[in-house]
Design goal:
By secondary structure, the protein is an alpha+beta fold. 49% of the residues lie in helices and 14% in strands.
Length: 253
Protein backbone atom coordinates (compact mmCIF):
# COMPACT_ATOMS: atom_id res chain seq x y z
CA UNK A 1 0.00 0.00 0.00
CA UNK A 2 1.11 3.58 -0.61
CA UNK A 3 1.80 6.16 2.05
CA UNK A 4 0.60 9.73 1.43
CA UNK A 5 3.79 10.93 -0.24
CA UNK A 6 3.88 7.97 -2.62
CA UNK A 7 0.17 8.24 -3.41
CA UNK A 8 0.58 11.92 -4.29
CA UNK A 9 3.63 11.23 -6.45
CA UNK A 10 2.08 8.33 -8.35
CA UNK A 11 -1.23 10.15 -8.83
CA UNK A 12 0.60 13.11 -10.38
CA UNK A 13 2.72 10.81 -12.55
CA UNK A 14 -0.25 8.91 -13.94
CA UNK A 15 -2.48 11.95 -14.43
CA UNK A 16 0.29 13.93 -16.12
CA UNK A 17 1.02 11.02 -18.48
CA UNK A 18 -2.69 10.89 -19.33
CA UNK A 19 -2.62 14.63 -20.08
CA UNK A 20 0.49 14.25 -22.26
CA UNK A 21 -1.21 11.56 -24.37
CA UNK A 22 -4.40 13.61 -24.66
CA UNK A 23 -2.48 16.75 -25.66
CA UNK A 24 -0.92 14.87 -28.58
CA UNK A 25 -4.20 13.64 -30.09
CA UNK A 26 -5.42 14.68 -33.50
CA UNK A 27 -9.09 15.41 -34.17
CA UNK A 28 -9.90 11.80 -34.99
CA UNK A 29 -8.26 10.51 -31.84
CA UNK A 30 -10.75 12.33 -29.63
CA UNK A 31 -13.68 10.38 -31.09
CA UNK A 32 -12.05 6.94 -30.75
CA UNK A 33 -14.02 4.47 -28.66
CA UNK A 34 -12.35 3.24 -25.48
CA UNK A 35 -12.70 -0.04 -23.61
CA UNK A 36 -14.79 1.85 -21.03
CA UNK A 37 -18.22 0.98 -22.39
CA UNK A 38 -20.01 3.92 -23.99
CA UNK A 39 -17.11 6.38 -23.64
CA UNK A 40 -15.05 7.91 -26.41
CA UNK A 41 -11.60 9.28 -25.69
CA UNK A 42 -13.15 12.74 -25.26
CA UNK A 43 -15.64 11.45 -22.67
CA UNK A 44 -12.99 9.43 -20.85
CA UNK A 45 -10.68 12.44 -20.58
CA UNK A 46 -13.52 14.78 -19.57
CA UNK A 47 -14.46 12.32 -16.83
CA UNK A 48 -10.85 12.14 -15.62
CA UNK A 49 -10.58 15.92 -15.41
CA UNK A 50 -13.91 16.28 -13.61
CA UNK A 51 -13.03 13.43 -11.24
CA UNK A 52 -9.74 15.09 -10.31
CA UNK A 53 -11.54 18.30 -9.36
CA UNK A 54 -14.18 16.43 -7.35
CA UNK A 55 -11.56 14.35 -5.55
CA UNK A 56 -9.65 17.53 -4.74
CA UNK A 57 -12.84 18.97 -3.27
CA UNK A 58 -13.32 15.80 -1.21
CA UNK A 59 -9.83 16.06 0.29
CA UNK A 60 -10.32 19.77 0.98
CA UNK A 61 -13.57 18.98 2.80
CA UNK A 62 -11.78 16.30 4.82
CA UNK A 63 -9.10 18.82 5.81
CA UNK A 64 -11.87 21.19 6.95
CA UNK A 65 -13.75 18.48 8.87
CA UNK A 66 -16.72 18.40 6.46
CA UNK A 67 -17.91 14.98 5.33
CA UNK A 68 -20.63 15.77 2.77
CA UNK A 69 -19.60 13.89 -0.42
CA UNK A 70 -19.14 16.04 -3.53
CA UNK A 71 -21.25 15.34 -6.59
CA UNK A 72 -20.26 12.56 -8.98
CA UNK A 73 -18.02 13.73 -11.83
CA UNK A 74 -19.84 12.26 -14.83
CA UNK A 75 -18.33 12.93 -18.28
CA UNK A 76 -18.92 16.59 -19.21
CA UNK A 77 -19.67 17.43 -22.86
CA UNK A 78 -16.72 19.70 -23.72
CA UNK A 79 -14.53 20.63 -26.65
CA UNK A 80 -11.04 19.13 -26.88
CA UNK A 81 -9.42 22.35 -25.65
CA UNK A 82 -11.89 22.55 -22.77
CA UNK A 83 -11.12 18.94 -21.82
CA UNK A 84 -7.39 19.66 -21.75
CA UNK A 85 -7.98 22.76 -19.60
CA UNK A 86 -10.13 20.70 -17.23
CA UNK A 87 -7.50 17.96 -17.00
CA UNK A 88 -4.74 20.44 -16.22
CA UNK A 89 -6.74 22.41 -13.66
CA UNK A 90 -7.97 19.18 -12.07
CA UNK A 91 -4.43 17.81 -11.82
CA UNK A 92 -3.21 21.01 -10.16
CA UNK A 93 -6.13 21.11 -7.70
CA UNK A 94 -5.77 17.45 -6.76
CA UNK A 95 -2.02 17.68 -6.22
CA UNK A 96 -2.48 20.76 -4.02
CA UNK A 97 -5.26 19.08 -2.02
CA UNK A 98 -3.16 15.97 -1.43
CA UNK A 99 -0.27 18.18 -0.41
CA UNK A 100 -2.44 19.87 2.23
CA UNK A 101 -3.46 16.64 4.00
CA UNK A 102 -2.18 16.68 7.57
CA UNK A 103 -1.88 13.97 10.24
CA UNK A 104 -5.35 14.68 11.63
CA UNK A 105 -6.92 14.29 8.18
CA UNK A 106 -4.95 11.10 7.53
CA UNK A 107 -6.35 9.63 10.74
CA UNK A 108 -9.91 10.57 9.80
CA UNK A 109 -12.39 10.15 6.97
CA UNK A 110 -12.63 11.66 3.49
CA UNK A 111 -15.84 12.25 1.50
CA UNK A 112 -15.55 11.20 -2.15
CA UNK A 113 -18.37 11.18 -4.72
CA UNK A 114 -19.22 7.52 -4.06
CA UNK A 115 -18.99 7.57 -0.28
CA UNK A 116 -17.06 8.48 2.85
CA UNK A 117 -13.88 6.45 3.34
CA UNK A 118 -10.94 6.34 5.74
CA UNK A 119 -8.42 8.78 4.32
CA UNK A 120 -5.71 6.09 4.21
CA UNK A 121 -7.98 4.21 1.78
CA UNK A 122 -9.18 7.34 -0.03
CA UNK A 123 -5.67 8.42 -1.08
CA UNK A 124 -5.38 5.24 -3.17
CA UNK A 125 -8.46 5.96 -5.26
CA UNK A 126 -6.87 8.73 -7.39
CA UNK A 127 -3.86 6.47 -7.99
CA UNK A 128 -6.07 3.77 -9.47
CA UNK A 129 -8.41 6.22 -11.21
CA UNK A 130 -5.66 7.79 -13.31
CA UNK A 131 -3.42 4.74 -13.74
CA UNK A 132 -6.26 2.71 -15.22
CA UNK A 133 -7.72 5.60 -17.21
CA UNK A 134 -4.27 6.47 -18.54
CA UNK A 135 -3.99 2.86 -19.67
CA UNK A 136 -7.55 2.99 -21.09
CA UNK A 137 -6.58 6.06 -23.11
CA UNK A 138 -3.23 4.68 -24.23
CA UNK A 139 -4.82 1.40 -25.28
CA UNK A 140 -7.46 3.22 -27.33
CA UNK A 141 -4.99 5.36 -29.29
CA UNK A 142 -2.13 2.86 -29.63
CA UNK A 143 0.24 4.42 -27.12
CA UNK A 144 0.00 1.75 -24.44
CA UNK A 145 2.99 1.14 -22.19
CA UNK A 146 1.09 -0.89 -19.60
CA UNK A 147 0.40 -0.40 -15.93
CA UNK A 148 3.40 0.52 -13.84
CA UNK A 149 4.24 -2.35 -11.51
CA UNK A 150 3.92 -0.20 -8.37
CA UNK A 151 0.28 0.47 -9.28
CA UNK A 152 -0.46 -3.08 -10.40
CA UNK A 153 1.08 -4.63 -7.28
CA UNK A 154 -0.77 -2.21 -5.00
CA UNK A 155 -4.06 -3.01 -6.74
CA UNK A 156 -3.47 -6.72 -6.06
CA UNK A 157 -2.98 -5.88 -2.37
CA UNK A 158 -5.99 -3.53 -2.37
CA UNK A 159 -8.47 -5.72 -4.26
CA UNK A 160 -9.46 -8.08 -1.39
CA UNK A 161 -10.95 -5.07 0.39
CA UNK A 162 -12.60 -3.74 -2.76
CA UNK A 163 -14.06 -6.94 -4.21
CA UNK A 164 -16.82 -7.53 -1.62
CA UNK A 165 -18.04 -3.96 -2.10
CA UNK A 166 -18.13 -4.44 -5.87
CA UNK A 167 -19.93 -7.76 -5.42
CA UNK A 168 -22.72 -5.94 -3.62
CA UNK A 169 -23.57 -4.31 -6.96
CA UNK A 170 -23.84 -7.63 -8.84
CA UNK A 171 -26.94 -8.97 -10.54
CA UNK A 172 -29.15 -11.23 -8.46
CA UNK A 173 -28.39 -14.92 -8.31
CA UNK A 174 -25.88 -17.20 -6.68
CA UNK A 175 -22.80 -18.62 -8.35
CA UNK A 176 -21.95 -22.30 -8.14
CA UNK A 177 -18.20 -21.71 -8.12
CA UNK A 178 -15.44 -19.71 -6.40
CA UNK A 179 -12.57 -17.63 -7.80
CA UNK A 180 -8.89 -17.41 -6.93
CA UNK A 181 -6.74 -14.59 -8.29
CA UNK A 182 -2.99 -15.15 -8.03
CA UNK A 183 -0.15 -12.76 -8.91
CA UNK A 184 3.38 -12.16 -7.61
CA UNK A 185 2.06 -9.44 -5.27
CA UNK A 186 -0.51 -11.70 -3.62
CA UNK A 187 -3.45 -14.05 -3.93
CA UNK A 188 -7.09 -14.03 -2.86
CA UNK A 189 -9.98 -16.46 -2.95
CA UNK A 190 -13.56 -15.22 -3.38
CA UNK A 191 -16.56 -17.41 -2.67
CA UNK A 192 -20.33 -16.76 -2.59
CA UNK A 193 -21.54 -15.80 0.88
CA UNK A 194 -25.26 -15.28 1.30
CA UNK A 195 -26.32 -12.68 -1.25
CA UNK A 196 -22.78 -11.42 -1.88
CA UNK A 197 -19.17 -12.66 -1.99
CA UNK A 198 -16.50 -12.91 0.69
CA UNK A 199 -12.74 -13.28 0.77
CA UNK A 200 -11.93 -16.64 2.39
CA UNK A 201 -8.87 -18.47 3.64
CA UNK A 202 -8.07 -21.98 2.53
CA UNK A 203 -9.87 -24.07 -0.05
CA UNK A 204 -13.48 -23.25 -1.02
CA UNK A 205 -16.22 -25.87 -0.89
CA UNK A 206 -17.35 -24.96 -4.41
CA UNK A 207 -15.50 -25.75 -7.66
CA UNK A 208 -12.66 -23.30 -8.17
CA UNK A 209 -11.79 -21.07 -11.11
CA UNK A 210 -8.16 -19.98 -10.80
CA UNK A 211 -6.86 -16.93 -12.67
CA UNK A 212 -3.13 -16.24 -12.50
CA UNK A 213 -0.59 -14.07 -14.25
CA UNK A 214 1.63 -11.04 -13.78
CA UNK A 215 0.63 -8.25 -11.43
CA UNK A 216 -0.41 -6.17 -14.44
CA UNK A 217 -2.47 -8.90 -16.10
CA UNK A 218 -4.35 -9.88 -12.94
CA UNK A 219 -4.98 -6.24 -12.00
CA UNK A 220 -6.33 -5.48 -15.48
CA UNK A 221 -8.55 -8.57 -15.34
CA UNK A 222 -9.85 -7.75 -11.86
CA UNK A 223 -10.75 -4.24 -13.02
CA UNK A 224 -12.47 -5.48 -16.17
CA UNK A 225 -9.91 -4.17 -18.66
CA UNK A 226 -8.97 -7.53 -20.19
CA UNK A 227 -10.94 -10.74 -20.55
CA UNK A 228 -10.23 -14.33 -19.64
CA UNK A 229 -9.02 -14.99 -23.19
CA UNK A 230 -6.04 -12.66 -22.78
CA UNK A 231 -2.84 -14.71 -23.37
CA UNK A 232 -1.18 -13.13 -20.35
CA UNK A 233 -3.55 -15.03 -18.06
CA UNK A 234 -3.51 -18.70 -17.05
CA UNK A 235 -7.01 -20.05 -16.35
CA UNK A 236 -7.25 -23.40 -14.56
CA UNK A 237 -9.42 -25.39 -12.19
CA UNK A 238 -12.65 -27.42 -12.41
CA UNK A 239 -14.67 -24.21 -12.91
CA UNK A 240 -12.25 -22.65 -15.41
CA UNK A 241 -15.09 -21.80 -17.80
CA UNK A 242 -16.48 -19.40 -15.19
CA UNK A 243 -13.59 -17.00 -15.75
CA UNK A 244 -15.70 -15.27 -18.41
CA UNK A 245 -18.37 -14.55 -15.74
CA UNK A 246 -16.06 -12.80 -13.27
CA UNK A 247 -17.35 -9.28 -13.94
CA UNK A 248 -20.94 -10.52 -13.71
CA UNK A 249 -20.32 -11.34 -10.07
CA UNK A 250 -17.67 -8.71 -9.24
CA UNK A 251 -18.82 -5.80 -11.48
CA UNK A 252 -17.31 -2.37 -12.07
CA UNK A 253 -15.75 -0.07 -11.49
Amino acid sequence: MFDLAAARTVTARELNELIDIAAGLDLGGWSTQTRCEGWTVRELCAHAGAAARQQAEGFRRARAGRLEPPEGPGAPDLTSDEVLDLLRSGAAELDAALGDIDDTTMAGMTPLPFGVLPTMIAIHLPVFEYAFHRDDLASAVGARRGLADDVAATMIEFFPGLAPALAGRAASGRAAHAYRLTAPAGAMTLAPSGSTWAVIDGEPELPLCSISGSNEAVALFAMGRIGADDPRLDITGPAASAANEFKRWIPGP
